[in-house]
């Protein structure tokens, strides 16, 4: 069983409060860390959870509004101070480099590690990261400035060896790897044992979609179709739907409608305007459209593999 | 009695921790607020103390190392969100404008209020702010990049009316203002009453000097001579004096020596490297040179008028 969870480091929209940090999330897929967004104070929230900063090699920035990136330079500086050597890969619109460079210029700072800037486009969904087990694609969102969400998807897993069948058919050890890859077994006497007899179905692959900031945008539905866990911003209550439209944000009901239409298994809502001291107002609104909704509470881990 | 205090909002050097924010201080002189430095997270610390952000009209940035200014843009954005109208005056080296402008450019942001950038030089002490009661001058510091401290000085106060003498000499009300300004009283029959007979000595004027970041620098001594409260960085213990020299920072003993040589009444030390979990190590080092020293504890108000 692989690990696949999301730690909410902040759920505030524009103005942070004592209990609500600006947006940031840490995705942990089998102990590989991916940081999404990095609002002011993110490095402190990471310390609070005893996350080793140097284990973060990939940072995804959705867009260049301050509440989504103003903690990045501070985090990078602390990584530097701690003697980081490994490359840091930053996925963002191309302008992030200019912002970081001007800071380094005036602070006369150099970094002890290289940065690899991966420019993401907000026009179409594209694959921006891939390893053996996971791929990350962008989700073009509809916001005031270029903005992308991120879809984390486990690749299809290989079939699992059935230990009893391996024993029953007397399969030698050297043949196991090929069977794992789906091949039939052929013995020295040319007898064939079908792969299905030797293996069990593979474990399911899970997916997580991060969609913030965005107005209600049905174009994202085919991209996030059947996602296991969907984070969708819900800055406003329906009562402030006009304000949501004007500022290119979503209401809780709109977030829930996207979850419903995309057949998501579960929805978490966040990026709350601080005009709502009681978030149940937003939760109940979303639940009336899509029952399996939860608040993206700061400090909470969401297990992507658990649909409850 | 006027109010003159300093609220410590952060005392960490480069890497912040859960309990030590990056540098920021709020100087309150008779309910007029002056913010010095604005490290990441400062707006949260201000909220913690229920400080009304819109009452801050003057922000002094010592230098462009991230731990002294990376909270500024977030604070400015929250001020904007809260509908600020009043001008914000930022005192810093000229490059701060470029940093803020590039952020506004890529976030396509506009501010609801004007910014007045006052460029400070780090070559000589100069008067950068003055009103009826207070003046603020720069203190050229010795750091890796241009860096200035700030000296807050109450102007000499007027003599105080002696109510009993006013009664005894039958002074009419209309003459009081001139007497407050130091004039003698001349009656309608040309009798003169000397000002000294009608007034008491003025209350003392107090001063606060903020010196961070800096290597040991005796040139600042004449500028901060006889200061009531001196904040001097003490990033390191004497054990790491080499590191202090290399990074243009001070040890606790050096901070204390500056306090002693400038005849300060009281010293507070801060900007601590997080290699020292127990700050008493630094406090004791400073006290061995200058007894009246205290730790600049986060969340503490220091009364500039109280030398204990």
Describe this entry's structure for a reader.
The radius of gyration of chain A is 22 Å and the shape is globular. The first copy, chain A, has 308 residues and is of the alpha/beta class. Chain A has helices at residues 42-48, 66-69, 72-81, 95-106, 163-168, 176-180, 195-198, 221-224, 241-246, 252-261, 280-287, and strands spanning 4-10, 24-29, 32-36, 56-60, 88-92, 115-119, 127-130, 134-140, 148-154, 160-161, 185-186, 192-193, 199-200, 207-211, 229-233, 266-270, 293-295, 301-303. The two termini of chain A are 17 Å apart. The first copy, chain A, folds into two domains: 4-157 and 203-303, Metallo-beta-lactamase, Chain A, CATH 3.60.15.10; 160-200, no CATH class. A seven-stranded mixed β-sheet of chain A has the order 6-5-4-3-2-1-18. In chain A, strands 7-8-9-14-15-16-17 form a seven-stranded mixed β-sheet, covered by helices on one side. A two-stranded antiparallel ribbon of chain A has the order 10-13. The first copy, chain A, has eleven helices and 18 strands. In chain A, helix 10 packs parallel to helix 11. The relative contact order of chain A is 0.14. The interface between A and B is large, with 36 and 36 residues.
Short note summarizing the structure:
Two copies of one chain form a homodimer. With 308 residues, chain A is an alpha/beta fold.
